[in-house]
Design a protein that fits this description.
Low-confidence stretches: none
Order of helices and strands: HEEHEHHEHEE
CATH architecture: 3-Layer(aba) Sandwich
Radius of gyration: 13 Å
CATH class: Alpha Beta
Number of domains: 1
Mean pLDDT: 98
Shape: globular
CATH superfamily: RbsD-like domain
Amino acid sequence: MKKNGILNPQLNRVISEMGHRDMLIIADAGLPIPKEVERIDLALKCGTPSFAEVLPAVLSELKVEEAYVAEEIKEKNPQTLNLISSLIGEVKFITHEELKELSKQARAIVRTGECSPYANIILISGVTF
């Protein structure tokens, strides 16, 4: 049995298969997930697991080169934006509609139990060297 880090086997597999510039999305419970994109559904109930629990766990195992969030998060969910900024630093802003369109290109979408608005982030993988 794995003793630490992410225990979910599907999420572990996707992270280990990520290549340079691949896209992984961590999403709230309401983000539409395109049928053609792999869904990693962690949601148990509203709020569990939270976006705030999942993001740092993923960041501990994935090298991130850049990140995108919806512009709307600034007004509708500043607490989550503050969390993201504290963990990642600078992020790029796009509209929520652009985020949903880009989600079709994701390697996978991790659905959390987060039930707050615009708690979604596109992570673009980097290289570790």
